[in-house]
Structure formats: C-alpha cells, structure tokens
Here is the input.
Amino acid sequence: MKWEVEPLGEDLYRELESLAKEVGCFLWKVEYKGNILRLVLDKLDGPVGIEQCANMSRMASVVLDAYNYGKGSYTLEVSSPGLDRELETRNDFERFKGRLARIAFVLNGKSYSVQGRLEGVDEVSGDQIFLRTSKKLWTIPISSITKANLEVEF
Here is the structure.
C-alpha cells in the first residue's frame, strides 16, 4: 500500500526542514500510514548516515511534541531513501543520470517494466526521460511512469 502524506501544516513542515538542514540533509519525503510517521532524509553529496537519522529523530520528537502533532500515539521513523530509492520527480531523474534504474510505465495501454541507464530528461519539454537498455533508447513520458527505482549495483 502506498504511504499517504498526513498534513503537517506549513509551520511544522518548515521546522522539520530546518532540523534536517541542521543534521546536514534535506527532508525528502514525509509519509504517514496507520500510526507511523516517517521522515525520509536525503543528501546530495553521499549517503545519509545512521547518526544523522538518530539526531533528526531526537530533535523531531521534541518539535512534534511541542506542536502537539498526531491524534493519539504514533511511531516516528527517520530513514534514508536507500540504495534502491524511488525516483519521483524530474529532479530525481536528472540527479541520477548515468545510474541503473528500473522504470515501470504504461504507453498506449500496454504496461512495460524496463531496466537501463538513465540518460537524463528532455531539456526542451522537460516531461520525458531517456533510458538506455542494451537494445534501445527509450523515451518515456514522466506522466506515464507508474514506478521508478534505482537498481543496486555492485
């Protein structure tokens, strides 16, 4: 099941963004499902460390309590997107140019799941990505993508 975002309110969201900056990251995603609030941290210059997640968790707990967040009890999780992170925005596809990815999409009513190297985003329209497989260069409209993840390479 896809995580649903619980509205934090602009002030609380900005406060959490500020905390993420304090630990050397940015707040990539906020997810809420059941009684779990997940804050996902990311960095542009390398992986997010366990220390950064732990520090963010401690600081966010204090802020969430101060804002009286949540309807009853909930569990706070702070994590990174992981090695097989989701790709969701145009910036994600640009940022990970050259990396191996699996893209699921629908074109003309037919479903595809293709693994290849990200070659970037169409600079003119900005609404298509390029993915190179061993057999062809795919031009995939971003709006047709149903799921996209980086693949782990060793």
